[in-house]
């Protein structure tokens, strides 16, 4: 059987599957492959990727939107001193942290994770994000945060 998978050693485009086996639950398949050109062997794992799902306050579940997270954080930094690379690193760190909560996370968890990270990174961006996404229980909470700056 030949399935298209590039050889990691010589980059030949087709490699042969010499063994396939499912894990006990059947949720992943391990394939042992051999390159017909360089004869080296390697292993690939095939696994269903359902991605990260977000549960909104309403209970509705939707796919996690990286662009939306990026835009939200980018807006919080609008006019502040941060370059694209730093912003991307920050967003990726936040994204990775969110993923540690499993495949399904609540909107609140995402909001809190962003807030914690922004608080450490930039107080102004933090407050901007907070004022948009965090529902402060009352106005005095927000004023208290501002006063702490
Ligand atoms: Zn090869």
TrEMBL record:
Q: What is this protein called?
A: Transcriptional repressor NrdR
* Keyword field: ATP-binding, DNA-binding, Metal-binding, Nucleotide-binding, Repressor, Transcription, Transcription regulation, Zinc, Zinc-finger
Gene responsible for this protein = nrdR
UniProt source species: Candidatus Actinomarina minuta
Q: Name one GO biological process term.
A: negative regulation of DNA-templated transcription
Q: Which GO terms describe its molecular function?
A: ATP binding; DNA binding; zinc ion binding
Record keywords: Nuclease included?
Answer: no
InterPro entries in the record, alphabetically? Answer: ATP-cone_dom, NrdR-like_N, RNR_NrdR-like
Q: What are the boundaries of the unnamed zinc fingers?
A: 7-38
The record's function comment reads: Negatively regulates transcription of bacterial ribonucleotide reductase nrd genes and operons by binding to NrdR-boxes.
Q: What are the boundaries of the signal sequence?
A: none
